[in-house]
Amino acid sequence: MKTTQILIAGFGGQGILFAGKFLAYKGLLEGKQISWLPSYGPEMRGGTASCSVIISDTPVGSPIVSKPDVLVAMNLPSLDKYEDSVVPGGVIFVDSTLIERKVNRTDVTVYYVPSTQLASDNNLGNLANMIMMGKLMDVNGDYNEDGIHAALGKVISARHADMQAVNLKALEIGKNN
Amino acid sequence: MVVFEKPKSLADVPLHYCPGCTHGIIHRLVAEVIDELGIEGKTIGVAPVGCSVMAYDYFNCDMVEAAHGRAPAVATGLKRSDPENHIVFTYQGDGDLASIGMAETVHSAARNENITVIFVNNAIYGMTGGQMAPTSLPGQVTQTSPYGRDTDHCGFPIKVCEMLSQLDGPEYLERVSVNNVKNIKAAKKAIKKAFENQINGKGFSLVEVVSTCPTNWGLTPVKALEWLEEKMLPYYPLGVYKDRSAQKEGE
Amino acid sequence: MADKVLMKGNEAIAEAAIMAGCRHYFGYPITPQTEIAAYMAKRMPKIGGVFLQAESEIAAINMVYGVSSTGKRVMTSSSSPGVSRKSEGISYMAGADLPALIVNVQRGGPGLGGIQPSQSDYFQATRGSGHGDYHLIVLAPSSVQEMADLTIKGFDLGDKYRMPVMLLADGTMGQMMEPVSFDNVETKEYDKSWAVTGTKCERKHNIINSLYLKPEELEKENFARFERYKVIEANEAMYQEYKMDDAEICVVAFGIAARVAQNAIDAAREEGIKVGMIRPITLWPFPKAPMLAATDKVHTFISVEMSMGQMIEDIKLATECRRPVELCNRVGGMIPTPDEVLDSIRAAAQKGGNK
């Protein structure tokens, strides 16, 4: 019986909600109980955006992640705001392109991924979010091609099917980094 | 041979209107038009809040009583429920249509909502006992403008047809009166056209009827008709303010 | 399983309404429920329905009044300040015995308030919202699936009892995504011979009206309506019990607050505290019977709500004040954390019902 509470946070426009939706759909397709909750309001347009995702073997209680097992920090304000809320023994993923400082906590595992730089180096536009998701799945040990394909199929509309390949590439770069 | 009978669309009940009030004439014109067009069975009327609040008892067609000012919104729902089979009209006074319900009036006109609006303008709130209306004339004495409507203090009357004619939306706007036989005939023609427009899918048609309120004006019925002619008609000139289809034909 | 899709609560409401046969939607934009309007704007034209953005919430509810008068299923949605504006029309619908589904995705108040989730329209919803003696059936979902299910049920209840029904959600419920399925959607047909659809010259004219100038008549109408309300109170109260079998403390919470409370109850149970929850699903009629019954074994009730303490009054009435009722609340758009609720539970356990 396992419940993973994930908080993804960054600027509006970094694809925070999309990344969360991808994880949620992947969990759903793998038979998990899931919930996805975005921050909403004017801050979505350029301010901070965050997204709570819960993936669980049992029905999800509160959909609000206040003590994340996993924090994905895509910018400095997000790390500043949420670092202390991560449970002891939890995991923090840091976009080290945009966040220069190190994580202060010593009771968590930290992965520094220069995802914004990697996205730019690989012509992947603003897919730093998916590079981060690739890394996250790899660390969690649930990076599986079938699940990823299926989940991408759900979150990318048929109209933008050509986006599948670039998203896959971003996930792979994340996994291999 | 029958030379005079009550229109079928008018219920056989005594109306509650005051002696000399022109609501009775306007009710009759609407009912005659419904009869003549043979639409009694598909017509749904919307009664307002004001003197004609109980119009739902007077018209023989299906009727809905609306909240104050909301008749055009209610009519929008009634019409859009089944546009092919519902003929929908509202019957509203000046307080209802031009004060509290102005937003609904303007927006249903802007949408060219395919409904017929009968707007009775008697320049006063009748039902509540003679208060200043959005169409009360400058200087007009009412219960809430006891020293005469002071335009510096409470502004000017609203000329509904003129105002709505600035919108691209509405199909047909005409101001008529029922102060004499000639004008009554013209009023009926306008009301008929407003219903025909709806039947032909042309859209929002409003007929403003300049009317009397002898009781609250404090005049006899005859004096009230004179006051209407001398005071109201110069401020509210009769005529067609918009007729889009006619305009198109003319181009 | 394959049929489950991820949907925002707001979208689930919209889709469920369509499945329930609703083909008319009128609304005005307001955060945090605008997804409902957006969904309807996209779908309605494709299925022969009508989506119309009204000039105000006031116009929207009166368009709803118009369609409902013709006997068709119709809905509107808004958030707190917008529901205040609709309240006049809701009162008229109650007075004219017209069904409709009105969705309130609540945000903080009073006034313009904020845009974050709240439950502070509890009084407004359960006490009728507008002027005069009337009730709405008030449904309070606590999951996206329930938002869909209760939307469908709401249409049925409204038609069955000829009255407006309110779906009372909040910003979190509206924005969250969870799996939802629309299997086995069944709706019933109800007699609507009262509707105005044109007499076809075949019957006496129907009148939709809430005006009764003779007080004797208006009183009679009110009495008759409240007789119907008694039937609803006897038959339609819905609730869910959670770990109540051996509970000595009873949390009462609805909507998103119930989800938070569930985490706190699980944590308290791990500490050996015997705590459970009664989650009202209908806020009116309020599930009084299970709460009164619980007073036999429970020493303290805790009302967890995102308001200054509104539902707590109904709990006290339901339990006839036999046990203390504590309040655990956050307001203004704040949501209580599981830890805050847990603290309340611990405090109640320590006091053991002693004042």
Describe the structure.
The complex is a heterotrimer of chains A (177), B (251) and C (355). Chain A has one domain (3-176): Pyruvate-ferredoxin oxidoreductase, PFOR, domain III (Pyruvate-ferredoxin Oxidoreductase, domain 3), CATH 3.40.920. Chain A is 37% helix and 21% strand. Chain A has helices at 16-29, 76-82, 115-121, 128-140, 145-155, 163-176, and strands at residues 3-11, 33-38, 48-56, 70-73, 91-95, 109-113. Chain A starts with a strand and ends with a helix. Chain B has one domain: Thiamin diphosphate (ThDP)-binding fold, Pyr/PP domains (Rossmann fold, 3-Layer(aba) Sandwich). The radius of gyration of chain B is 17 Å and the shape is globular. Chain B is built from eleven helices and seven strands. Chain B has 251 residues and is of the alpha/beta class. Chain B has a seven-stranded mixed beta sheet, with helices on both faces. The longest helix of chain B has 19 residues, at 181-199. In chain C, helix 1 (9-19) runs parallel beside helix 6 (144-161). Chain C is α/β, with parallel strands linked by helices. The longest helix of chain C has 21 residues, at 215-235. Chain C has helices spanning 9-19, 34-43, 57-69, 80-95, 122-126, 144-161, 171-175, 215-235, 255-270, 288-294, 311-318, 338-351, and strands at residues 5-8, 24-27, 50-53, 74-78, 100-106, 137-139, 164-170, 177-180, 207-208, 239-242, 249-252, 275-280, 282-284, 300-305, 325-329. Chains in contact: A-C, B-C. At the A-C interface, helix 1 and strand 2 of A face helix 7, strand 8 and helix 9 of C.
Superfamily (CATH H level) name of chain A: Pyruvate-ferredoxin oxidoreductase, PFOR, domain III
Number of structurally distinct domains of chain B: 1
CATH class of chain B: Alpha Beta
Secondary-structure element series of chain A: EHEEEHEEHHHH
Mean pLDDT over all positions of chain A: 93
What's the alpha carbon Rg of chain B, rounded to whole Å?
A: 17 Å
The biggest chain-chain interface is:
B-C, 38 and 39 residues
Judging by the overall fold, what is the CATH architecture of chain A?
A: 3-Layer(aba) Sandwich
Sketch the major β-sheet of chain A.
6 strands, mixed
String of helices and strands of chain B: HEHEHEHHEHHEHEHHEH
Could you tell me how far the N terminus lies from the C terminus of chain A, measured between alpha carbons in angstroms?
A: 30 Å
Residue fraction in strands of chain B: 15-25%
Number of helices of chain A: 6
Mean pLDDT of chain B: 96
